[in-house]
Specification:
Blueprint: H1 2-33, H2 37-67
Keywords: Membrane, Transmembrane, Transmembrane helix
Length: about 80
């Protein structure tokens, strides 16, 4: 059962990152073509915020599991 949940988690993570990458390409296209630069900038900023949040959360999980602390709190 744990193997199935792990595969599903990896699949959804891959799908989410692929969606963010597609949004990045779409915002780049809009910005370069000059069609809607303001909207493209909003997409870029939101995507950046999501990536930074994901990096922080994944760093907390790794720190908590490997070193015994988590999210800046000592073990």
């Amino acid at each position: 059962m744990a193997r199935g949940k792990s595969f599903l988690f990896i699949f959804y993570a891959f799908l989410f990152v692929t969606l963010l990458f597609a949004l990045s390409l779409f915002s780049s296209y809009l910005f370069v073509s000059g069609k809607n630069r303001k909207f493209a900038l909003h997409i870029f900023i939101c995507r950046h915020i999501v990536f930074v949040t994901l990096e922080w959360v994944s760093g907390c999980v790794v720190f908590e599991r490997c070193l015994g602390g988590g999210c800046g709190f000592p073990a």
